[in-house]
Amino acid sequence: MKRVILFASLIALACIVTIAGAATTGGAPGSAVPASLPAASPQDAAALVYVSGYDLTPSVFYPYETGTLTVHVTNAGTSAVPVSQPDLIDPKVDVLNKGAFTTTTSIGPGATVDYNFIIQADGFDGTYFPLFTVSTNAWGTSAIHSQIKLKVDSTDVRASISMKPDTFSLEKTDSVNVSVVNPRLGDISDVLIVASSPGSNISPSEEFVQSIPAGSSVKVPFDITPHGESDVTFNVSFRNGDNVHTTSVVLPLNICADKSAAVPVINNVALTPTAGYYTMTADVGNAGITNAQGMIISVGAPAKPVEPYPAYTIGSLASDDFTRFTLTFAATDLSAVPVQVQWKDTEGNTRSSTTTLDLTTLADPPSGGARGAYGVPANRGGPIPFATLAAGGIIVIVCIALFAQRKWIASKLKKQ
Question: Which band of pLDDT confidence, cut at 50, 70 and 90, is reported for residue 36?
Fold first, then answer.
């Protein structure tokens, strides 16, 4: 009975194997049955694994700078290949993340695996060739090797002032150019220029440049309006890879009078006392080389502007031109009457100048006020005005003429 059962089991097993073989190799009637491909040996599969490229960030290192090396390992075969123990070998290049590669990696057919090394360049300026290596786990095969080209350059990025005026003037806006030069062998990125000064307005306050290629430069304009004597500092920061570096340039502001500004000059002054105030008329000329826009003239303390002409609007006064103006004011001391001239330059900046006049010899106190209330009476210890001399001369001439006429009439009567 046991033999019958064993024989029946063998027959059933043979049927199952036959059916399974038919299911594996069978197909539709008349179709070709493909032949199975022979599997590649581990040694042949490992021979098709190679280093397909690498990326360095930054592209050029500063000495002792940290960066990232990414090595691409590709499997060109049709079988998965296990690899392990990737390393980078060079006495001048330190791998800071060696503990990240302790496990075996399987690279599938047609796949690429990236190995990311955090490295530090310890060498001086020059080009180094660290050796990348990774082992295949197939018996009898050699490790995969590839040299990496790494450059170290200590040349620094420089900032300078490439355009500026010879001098700066208070409240006058001038433009300067800040040049950032990249003489390095690699590009830099995220360049930020920040301007600062305790006594000036600067526009813009900062500028951003996305990148500066190796061996090139950029020029960034800034407008500076000084309010006092101070320096302007331009701080420049940039990235070399993920590493931030800084440099700066200082611009001393040589503050001088504006050589191109309008120069108001007041002369030909006449002063007339009126009831309770003085009326002053004078010429104002522009001795500068640029026009004065929106010119307004007024008196300053201790004089007090009064109607009808507390201020006089000239408008535009061209270079080498002049015009007449009138002011009315009250004053207790004519020996120091400030005349203020205010105007705008061609850039719209407000300018001003003050001329202090001594008017004590030009007028008596205004009528209707107590003597000494508006100033010192004219001609007390000073020169005699021309008008007084002229009037006296006319009186003398008339007297001589009358005397001569009287003498002539007397001679006529005597002859008769």
Answer: very low
Domain boundaries in the chain?
Answer: 42-152, 158-252, 264-357
Is CATH 2.60.120.560 the classification given to domain 264-357?
Answer: no
Q: Are 158-252 and 264-357 in the same CATH fold?
A: yes
Does residue 345 register a pLDDT over 90?
no
Of 257, 327, 318, 334, residue with least CA distance to 296? 327
Nearest to 88 by CA among 75, 73, 72, 71: 71
Task: Please state the φ and ψ torsions of residue 87, each to the nearest 5 degrees.
Answer: -155, 160
pLDDT at residue 47 greater than cutoff 70? yes
Q: Which of 137-151, 269-283, 360-374 has the lowest mean pLDDT?
A: 360-374
Nearest to residue 133, comparing CAs of 143, 141, 142?
143
Q: What is the pLDDT of residue 171?
A: 81
Beta strands in 169-319 (DSSP E): 174-182, 188-196, 200-203, 206-212, 216-226, 231-240, 243-252, 264-274, 277-286, 292-299, 304-305, 311-317
Report the run of H or E that residue 405 belongs to, with start and end: helix 386-415
Note the pLDDT tens digit of each residue in 88-131: 999 999 999 988 888 899 999 999 999 999 999 987 899 999 99
91: number of Cβ within 10 Å: 9
225 bridge partner residues: 201
Quick one: pLDDT at residue 404?
Answer: 63
Superfamily of domain 158-252: Immunoglobulins (2.60.40.10)
Q: Which residues pair with 106 in a beta bridge?
A: 82
Class of domain 42-152: mainly beta
C-alpha–C-alpha distance, residues 231 and 34, integer Å: 85
